[in-house]
């Protein structure tokens, strides 16, 4: 007699109860969309290591027995106390392969696991302290870098995924600043998906008030921005614009196809309005391969918030940068231009004057001939530069200036207050930031703020009676 087939009891996985937070979901979406290499950069306690462990385990379970997943971390101590515990938390006991005696196939020594044979593939643990030469082993199906790897270690390990068409996930908090490794990923690689997150993304999985308590304990602003908001900042200096505000501005970015001006692709946030005043700030470059120039067009809010409407950052000669500025001025209602009156900026001023484009006349050059290039533009000194940057920051933080430009926001993210003055981090550009400052100077001339209202004295006071008498009004 044939009985009913026995139903196999399915044991719950420790992963079944985990609900992805918004940051983890963004990583998953990037990987599902086909990203071969994903870098998840976030604040502490954002859930990045938990996601990395789940990704490594789920991938290994789908592999063949001879396929290997690498789990790489900083040191043997970090592996014992953190990374391997994370893996075992999300790997069910029944998902570990057994030998003939029924023992779990986990190879370990003094509490440090070398590899785990799952019912799918193998999870191999490695750490950066062993040096780049330790990453020259056989190929890997996937690699999880738990926290930032040294550049030489990463380069050796990443090669091991080429033959397998494998995938890479790096999860980290940028506590070492803009290292050579991060600069390579953020600036030189175009095939890597960058996902950012904050501690607040994981607030639902933390005790109430944990984020605020952590922020209060961190007295240093740099540490708060990195460990809470997940920013990648150079070591030293404090952020020019707070991370929370930058994140909010990023959500307001207007994505639109660039338009050509002077042969360059200009980021256009908003086209011209015939009844609006515009100003154009120009930070001239020294020349191709030596520096980068910037142009920013700003619109007057006429009582409301001003707005950045067009942005260009480009490696170009002063002459070519002038061509773009001339076309932008004509497009935006013959806008007033404010070039920097230093060095290469004098070349720009000459070209603008020849083209008949309005150029700001310096208030401190009243003794110069009206048409003289020496009387035009804005002369930047150490003092005026700091004043300009303080004014720009105040406008951005106070939301009296709307910034929806991806180019400008990216440069603001690498701008810091150094020991003596605000400046771009070493190796980064400030041309668009300075051009934005100059455009605000121009708005002060094309659309000056209304005069403040005179305070009205209390009714019946001596000043009230005097004011009425001066106005020829009868005192009642």
Structure description:
- The protein has 476 residues and is α/β, with parallel strands linked by helices.
- The chain folds into two domains: 22-233, Rossmann fold (3-Layer(aba) Sandwich); 251-446, Nucleotidyltransferase, domain 5, CATH 3.30.420.240.
- Helix content is 33%, strand content 18%.
- It has helices at 22-32, 48-61, 76-90, 151-159, 180-188, 210-217, 221-227, 243-251, 318-331, 344-354, 382-397, 406-412, 431-446, 462-470, and strands at residues 37-42, 68-73, 106-109, 112-117, 122-127, 142-146, 167-172, 193-197, 238-239, 259-261, 264-268, 278-283, 293-299, 306-314, 336-339, 401-402, 415-417, 422-424.
- It has an eight-stranded mixed beta sheet with strand order 3-4-5-2-6-7-1-8.
- The model is unreliable at 1-10 (pLDDT under 50).
